[in-house]
DNA sequence: AACTGAACTGAACTTAACTCAGGTTGATCT
DNA sequence: AGATCAACCTGAGTTAAGTTCAGTTCAGTT
């Protein structure tokens, strides 16, 4: 369990700017469809300067995914830490999952669209490190949900079921939204959040 | 609504063999990670022969996705056509979704991992045709589920809720399984099927 | 046997990611 | 202020994989 430390930013580092631009491009246009050089242009540097910060286009993608996973986990912990009962914790966790900025919507979309990257191992060290870190965070997040369910079940709030499988399903349900949701679309996120919150509670607690 | 007609196979056509090989490769290794030339090798032809059957690697992928979507729709219709009540129809539809061969598991995985391809339009005609056809089928499948819910709601079997949104959620829950499920994994598909079936009924009917 | 269209091939082309060898900049220290 | 050094950046060149092209082979038909 080696946690990746973010390279501390030198005063003229463009790392953050690159990540932001990459999230926009990858999120709107798709990872494969966006040229790495376009990201450079948007930041205002030559293409090769990107390699000062990231080993490859994929390394940048993996970084985005890892950061987003970390954020998801942090928010889950923050949201559930002082919930009275399991049902309230569940509700709070779902609401937290949809309490996101437009930028974070893109990050979730990117994350969901490239989960498969986390399976196969990578050639280069830094890429592989990010991949492993991201993979571990996926498991952490899955455990977050499973633990919530286990607690509720042992406490009698939820009927007994396979908590692992049910946890994965709840999580799958929640994140499936990011495949189709668009801020510009007809359905506001608040509406999604409410419906999914109810659905999760019924799934788990009835 | 122009439905793509499968090019009728000449007696020595390798189209089917290519699709099978591609499903194996794309499913196991991932689309980006598998070299188009590897597919050719596995079929036993030169790389350039592939272009006799498909305009591009992506065209092949889109074809796989469209075929799988068509299959999903057909199975849904078949499974629900003679169900007594809405709850039974719902149960039957979920069971049908998981009543699949190993090859079909791969196809679902490929489909789920590349849904984003269906958003942006394609340069060449044949690719674009496949994309549009696939997109339409996505909507058809979504309508399948929505209609099922609408019927159940109007019939009083399901409480009234946003059927569109709930339909998308149910579908999202069901297909989310294909991101992590592996035939070689610890959880048999029958177990998944039962848990999800229950979860869907609770989500929709309680 | 000549013909036809489907099936195929080797060599050349294209594109976008990436490497390299070196140049510039600016924060920091004396 | 001037020197220094690491961080930062660049243009030119390389590579790999998908794709195109200009034909060739093969099986069935007339």
From TrEMBL, chains A, B:
Alphabetical UniProt keywords: DNA-binding, Transcription, Transcription regulation
Keyword check for DNA-binding: yes
Record-level Gene Ontology MF annotations: DNA-binding transcription factor activity; transcription cis-regulatory region binding
Positions of the HTH tetR-type domain: 12-72
Entry superkingdom: Bacteria
UniProt keyword annotation of Transcription regulation present: yes
InterPro entries recorded: Homeodomain-like_sf, HTH-type_TetR-like_transc_reg, HTH_TetR, KstR2_TetR_C, Tet_transcr_reg_TetR-rel_C_sf
DNA-binding region: 35-54
Protein name: TetR family transcriptional regulator
Organism of this sequence: Streptomyces canus
Lineage: Bacteria, Bacillati, Actinomycetota, Actinomycetes, Kitasatosporales
């Amino acid at each position: 369990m080696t946690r990746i430390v973010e390279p501390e930013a030198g005063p003229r580092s463009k790392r953050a700017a690159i990540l932001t631009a990459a999230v926009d491009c990858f999120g709107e246009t798709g990872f494969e469809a966006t040229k790495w050089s376009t990201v450079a242009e948007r930041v205002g540097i030559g293409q090769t300067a990107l390699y000062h910060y990231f080993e490859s286009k994929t390394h940048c993608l993996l970084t985005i995914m890892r950061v987003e996973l970390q954020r998801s986990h942090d928010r889950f912990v923050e949201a559930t830490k002082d919930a009275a009962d399991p049902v309230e914790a569940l509700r709070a966790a779902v609401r937290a999952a949809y309490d996101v900025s437009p930028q974070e919507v893109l990050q979730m979309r990117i994350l969901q669209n490239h989960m498969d990257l986390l399976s196969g191992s990578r050639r280069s060290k830094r890429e592989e490190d990010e991949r492993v870190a991201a993979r571990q965070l996926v498991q952490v997040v899955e455990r977050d949900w499973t633990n919530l369910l286990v607690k509720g079940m042992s406490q009698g709030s939820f009927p007994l079921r396979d908590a692992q499988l049910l946890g994965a399903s709840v999580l799958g349900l929640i994140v499936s939204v990011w495949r189709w949701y668009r801020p510009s679309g007809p359905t506001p996120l608040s509406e999604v959040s409410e419906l999914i919150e109810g659905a999760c509670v019924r799934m788990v607690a009835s």
